[in-house]
Amino acid sequence: MHLVYPAVLAALLFCTGLYGVLARRNAILVLMSVELMLNAVNLNLVAFDVWLRDELHAGQALTLFTIAIAAAEIGIGLAIVLLVYRNRGTADIDRLRDLAESGRHTEPADRERQAEATA
């Protein structure tokens, strides 16, 4: 088996995921891009495991652990994104950062009005 083909495919997948993380503003698309990057790493692990003919299949075992961690990460990340969307009404990363920064510098009178509005 040639190692070049899966390595090039993994590099393309990783670069696509990296572009998605850096260019996208939707939190769900950023999480999907992180998953794409993790899948590129998994492809490299399995390809090198087969190419090196490892007796213990350490690359494949590490891939299973990576898949389990990625599943937990996407579950927790999606729960956080949905909670933020319910509270703020948007999943746009730039707007969420702006809301967080503007929330710190509110006047005490504004805080009292916000508390009265929620009560």
What does this structure look like?
There is one protein chain. Helix 1 packs antiparallel against helix 2 (27-52) and helix 2 (27-52) runs antiparallel to helix 3. The chain has five helices and no strands. The chain is 84% helix and 0% strand. The model has no long low-confidence stretch (mean pLDDT 86).
Short account of what is shown:
This protein has 119 residues and is mainly α.
Explain the layout of strands and helices.
Elements: H1 4-23, H2 27-52, H3 58-88, H4 93-104, H5 108-118
The gross shape turns out to be: elongated
Number of strands: 0
Number of helices: 5
Helix content: over 70%
- Report, as a whole number of angstroms, the end-to-end distance: 67 Å
The arrangement of helices and strands along the chain is HHHHH
Major sheet description: none
What gyration radius follows from the Cα positions, in whole Å?
A: 21 Å
Structural class, by secondary structure, is mainly alpha
Strand content: under 5%
Mean pLDDT: 86
* Low-confidence region ranges: none
Give a quick set of tags describing it.
119 residues, 5 helices, mainly alpha
